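User: Okay, second chain of the day. Same drill as before: sequence in, structure tokens out.
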Amino acid sequence: MFLQPTENVSPTVSFLNPCRFKLNSTGGHGRTNLSRVRYSMTEASQKTETLSQPPRVLLRTRGLQKRFGNYEVLRGLDLCVREGSVYGFLGRNGAGKTTTIQILMGIQKSNQGVIDLFGRTAKRPNIAEKRRIGYVSQEQHFYPWMSCRYLGKFVSRFYPTWDQPWFLRLLHTFELPMDRKVINLSQGMKVKLALALALAHRPRILILDEPTSGLDPAARREFLDIVSHQAETEGRTTFFSSHIVEEVARIADHVGIIDRGKLCFQGRPDTLYAGIRGYRPQDPEVWREPARKQALVDRLKAQNLTLLAEEPRQSTLVLEGDSEAWSGVDSHTLTLEDIFLALTTKRIQLA
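Assistant: Same drill. Structure tokens below.
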């Protein structure tokens, strides 16, 4: 039985997730040879950005709020995704990542706020806008009896810009057997099939909701390499959510960190690394005497540095400040994981 599209459901969602089957996954997955894909110089030249102005904003949310009863999931979320960027939307489980993406796709309605998408402002995207989005959900639900080739033929009916030769080329590149039924695909192969379906109509933006969830490390790395390669060679704007810091650090050139429904940070990773740094007190007694620690924190605060977290095992204070505040302070660069944990855990309250 086939589902029919409606005004309230994304065509991408409807036909990448046509029904809620529980599938049995068998079979393996192979490594993808990315060098099989070639792109013309004309395509590459279209993606060259001028240095005089930043790329235009393709996707923006303003004051996005979502409540389930008395529970507030999103609290005034303001995202900004520029054309050509790979935006990593990082947050702990339950931070509001999937709810955000479902609102962007029109699956859920926000209680307040608007979405700016492709230059139009609205509460939710329309059908024409959804057709310009490539969407991969956290879980893949396909008709299990369809083959990879037939599934592409089925989905193609709902996208005027569907490129069948490009879809078949993607199947070949991702090493997906065209005539193998979905029920006989491994989880990693299903995710790659979902990505091929999302890319085949050549969308303006790719939106991925924790797509590597449930994949083994090898399959996860392969998928990220594919996404990164597509973004680099096609200039594909990509917005992907994850709770795995390594994934975001690996391929994102812009980062948004969400905690309890609000953005803690949004911008380039180098800006994040420059603003949040580690400081190792020279006095070891700081860790044993609260009064000394408080005095040190007060001195740092006087230099406009804010304490975010303590790492006693690393003898490090995690501090936030601008370049002027850090001037003259002997600090060191932190990993994205250290910064993420400092921003998404409860701030230190000293007596």
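DSSP finds 13 helices and 15 strands in the chain.

User: Thanks, on to the next one.
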